Amino acid sequence: MTTGTLIGYARVSTDAQDLTAQRDALSALGVPQERIYSDRGMTGTNRERPGLREALAVCRQGDTLVVTKLDRLARSLRDATDIAEELTRRQVRLNLGGSVYDPTDPVGRLLFNVLGMVAEFESDLIRARTREGMATAKVRGKLKGRKPKLSPVQERHMVALHRAGDHTVTELVELFGVGRATVYRALDRHPAEMSPAVTLPRVDA
Last residue of some domain: 84, 107, 136? Predict the structure, then answer.
């Protein structure tokens, strides 16, 4: 009886994370390096992953798909179950960190579901902590939105140039690299500095 081919899959959620540890672990489980497919900077909640799609595509009857942990394969119980069922229909085994998943074993199915729920819970927890952290940072003033496009000094200089009558609004837009709305708002904030000409309709020369 042939054991088929071992196909490995590894995933990290951000570009800053390293795949080396997972690759080494898959190699230790017998997966050749050239048979390891991976995704970098993609969460497990995203089913449409190029590396995962390739790994599933190359699996043939009798092969084994190997992952270090179930949460590398999927971060939702539904996705994990769907993938496992697809592999079972195609007679491809699923190896989770050295343990082959047996869908006919009630205990194995229970453990698989528990691992899937834990992975989904951890994903939900990460999202909740991220939202909480952003809310806390906003309250503390760490997230203040966009910085002003012009510093106070730059704004006063721009208004002075316009008051001198040597530059049109269009020229100021090009000179300071801002939008027309930014120029008009700056002029509105300094009405005392504006020449009588500025009160005329805003039509550029």
Answer: 136
